[in-house]
Specification:
It contains 1 helix and 30 strands. With about 350 residues, the chain is mostly beta strands. It folds into 2 domains: about 20-115, Distorted Sandwich (Coagulation Factor XIII, Chain A, domain 1), CATH 2.70.50; about 120-349, YVTN repeat-like/Quinoprotein amine dehydrogenase (Methylamine Dehydrogenase, Chain H). The strands form 8 sheets. The chain has an 8-stranded mixed beta sheet. Strands 5-4-7-8 form a 4-stranded antiparallel beta sheet, with no helix packed on it. A hairpin with a 2-residue loop joins β7 (about 90-100) and β8.
């Protein structure tokens, strides 16, 4: 087993999908020729697509699709070659429409595209330790104009906070209605965005006055977990391996990536933070942070944060959750749900 898979399993708690995981229809005249399909493909790989014709039908042509995008048409039963470059990591849904004798039939299958990046095991140095409100069930953490904002969760306890990170003093606090479970927050274009867990509702506040400007519904059937932004777009997690890309002006999801470390997908992606072109993410119930390429979803680095627990008053406290980057100091702040401390760290290889 490769070193990076071992690190992923230990630190991120993931499992490797079993080989030969394909999906095909059983009620069609035709089926994909899977005899040479691989268990996993890398972005630099290609695949040869063809269909089996067990009833020896006279085939006119075959139209091939990957993820519902047409990639080409062949005459008769000729095969089609396709390169995976620029495809999203994750399952590639294959479809063939076979035209024969004035009729057509469908064949489907799938293959899995995994990462070719070997994640680096990163290290961190604790620069400072600060008090953190132990009653805060931390869901989102972000700096804005040199001030730390925090979103907390749990029904009847969810809040939006503005704090002095050095002393733990709360400058401003605003409660959500008890029916909402608060989740991630992010601030862009002088507006605070806050999402909810299962209610599929988000809130937009004026960052100066905290006046609620808009309530919006998710445009996808997903849960709300973490949020961050790159200055233009918002990135949101939903508890799976997906990181969604949202247009803050419309609150519409316009794209997504699947997060993979080697040949394994990373599920339970939680709190997010945009740091110098990468997304740092907590993995739920794991004392680890994954560094993700937002363009591909590939995990490029892993931080083992388990050593922080020995500094907590209650080492068995809830999960690590909360990452905030302070661009002024170029340092990272991390904490957890109901942790009594927050740590300022610097990351290196």
């Amino acid at each position: 087993m490769k070193k990076y898979n071992f690190l992923s399993i230990i630190l991120l708690g993931i499992t490797i999908v079993s080989c030969g995981d394909t999906k095909k229809t059983n009620n069609s005249v035709f089926s994909f020729d899977e005899s040479k399909f691989q268990a996993h493909y890398l972005p630099q790989d290609g695949i040869q697509l063809g269909v089996l014709n067990p009833e020896s039908k006279e085939v006119d042509s075959v139209a091939y699709y990957i993820n519902d995008l047409k990639i080409g048409t062949t005459k008769g039963l000729e095969k089609l070659s396709f390169q995976f470059k620029n495809q999203k990591l994750g399952y590639q849904n294959l479809k063939a429409i076979v035209y024969y004798n004035g009729e057509n039939a469908l064949a489907i299958s799938r293959v899995e595209l995994v990462s070719n990046v070997e994640p680096k095991l990163l290290k961190y140095t604790i620069l400072n330790t600060y008090p953190h409100d132990i009653s805060s069930f931390t869901e989102g953490l972000e700096f804005y104009k040199d001030t730390l904002f925090e979103g907390t969760g749990n029904y009847n306890e969810s809040k939006l906070l503005k704090t002095d990170y050095k002393t733990g003093k709360i400058y401003k606090s605003q409660n959500l209605e008890g029916k909402y479970f608060g989740e991630g927050i992010t601030i862009v274009n002088n507006k605070i965005y806050q999402i909810t867990y299962k209610e599929k509702i988000g809130f937009i506040y004026n960052a100066d006055t905290w006046k609620l400007e808009k309530t919006f519904k998710y445009d996808k059937e997903i849960e709300g977990w973490g949020m961050t932004n790159d200055g233009n777009y918002i990135y949101q997690s939903d508890g799976t391996e997906k990181i969604w890309k949202m247009d803050p002006a419309t609150q519409k999801m316009i794209d997504y990536v699947n997060v993979y470390s080697g040949n394994a997908k990373i599920e339970s992606i939680n709190e997010l933070e945009w740091i110098e072109g990468k997304i740092y993410t907590n993995v739920w119930q794991k004392d680890a942070i994954a560094v993700v390429n937002p363009a591909t979803g590939a995990v490029e680095g892993i931080l083992d944060m388990s050593g922080l627990r020995k500094f907590l008053t209650y080492p068995n406290a809830e999960v690590l959750n909360g990452i905030a980057y302070n661009p002024k100091t170029k340092t990272i702040f991390v904490t957890g749900k109901n942790w009594d401390k927050m740590f300022e760290i610097k990351v290196s290889e």
